[in-house]
Design brief:
311 residues, binds beta-D-ribofuranose, binds calcium ion, 18% strand, globular, 13 helices, Inosine-uridine Nucleoside N-ribohydrolase, Chain A
Length: 311
């Protein structure tokens, strides 16, 4: 089988970085056309530099990186240095990138790719949806070039920034609304699923025991990352969000979910950024997304560790 053409839109961010490494470690499955970055966990200059550092760590400086939108559509930017550290990738010593950032804006790159590709492209979104929303607004015809969008974002249960909202949707709810309402083939992997994938001490040790620069960097970042989540949400160990999107594309059998009708709350002080999901779509109000609800966490971590061992 031909590798699946893939673009990753992200805001690295520790878990984004691990997701990128998982994709880079899977060349038989993915033809990674490029990585686009957006402001989110840390400001845009850092997300773009971090994506380049991670590709350098994996000895893949050839992967082109494009910087996108520096702020959400309407709201001011909320960042998450409390979770990811001041640099966004706390806990790892990373090499300086040897390849410059691409001059082209991420939105121009996405439009070019989706409108000229002979094979529909899969888009993995790991951050706020600003880049994809602006791309859709500028050029609705991109839909023809999209195979599917797999998004880390949202929650059917509680949020992680507010009681109602998950970070990626909360940061730019207006962009999320543009994306969810666009009618693209969409899969949502939200907190309901990712909170099942915990970075236990045993899983962390397995990564560290790879003994490679990538294994050490991944374990170092994950050791720091998410401690606040543990305290705040009373979890047994930090949850692993963004790598689930890449794992889903590699091994959909590790995930299960169902079609739902998704909508995004863009107003109000209590529920802004909430993903409102109707699990009982009708002919009049049909499903617009597959929402993942359960995952095989052991299988996902085994896949991650096995693949990162190849880098
Ligand atoms: C999401 O928020 C970010 O901090 C993570 O990178 C992930 O994409 C989880 O809510
Ligand atoms: Ca992210």
């Amino acid at each position: 089988m031909r590798p699946r053409p893939l673009i990753i839109d992200c805001d690295p961010g520790v878990d984004d970085a691990i997701a990128i490494l998982l994709a880079l470690a899977s060349p038989a499955e993915f033809d990674l056309l490029g990585i686009t970055t957006v402001a989110g966990n840390v400001p845009l200059a850092l997300t773009a530099a971090n994506a380049r550092r991670i590709c350098q760590l994996a000895q893949r400086p050839d992967v082109p990186i494009y910087a996108g939108c520096p702020r959400p559509l309407l709201r001011s930017l909320t960042t998450a240095e409390d979770i990811h550290g001041a640099t966004g990738l706390q806990g790892a010593e990373l090499p300086e990138p040897t390849t410059p950032l691409q001059a082209q804006h991420a939105v121009a790159f996405l439009i070019e790719q989706f409108t000229t590709t002979p094979h529909p492209i899969t888009l993995a979104t790991l951050g706020p949806l600003t880049n994809l929303a602006v791309t859709l607004i500028q050029c609705p015809a991109i839909a023809q070039g999209i195979d599917q969008v797999v998004m880390m974002g949202g929650a059917l249960g509680g949020g992680n920034v507010t009681p109602a909202a998950e970070f990626n949707i909360y940061v730019d709810p207006h962009a999320a609304k543009v994306v969810v309402d666009a009618g693209l083939p969409l899969t949502m992997i939200g907190l309901d699923a990712t909170h099942q994938v915990m970075t236990t001490p045993e899983r962390l040790t397995a990564l560290e025991n790879l003994g490679t620069p990538v294994g050490k960097a991944a374990a170092g970042m994950l050791r720091y990352y998410g401690q606040l989540d543990v305290e705040r949400h009373g979890l047994a160990a930090p949850p692993l969000h963004d790598p689930c999107i890449i794992a889903y594309l590699l091994r959909p059998d590790l995930f299960s979910g169902r079609p739902m009708r998704l909508a995004i709350e863009t107003e109000g002080s209590l529920c802004i950024g909430r993903t409102v999901a109707n699990a009982y779509p009708t002919a009049a109000v049909p499903a617009n997304a597959t929402v993942i609800q359960t995952v095989d966490a052991e299988g996902i971590y085994a896949l991650l560790t096995e693949r990162l061992g190849k880098l």
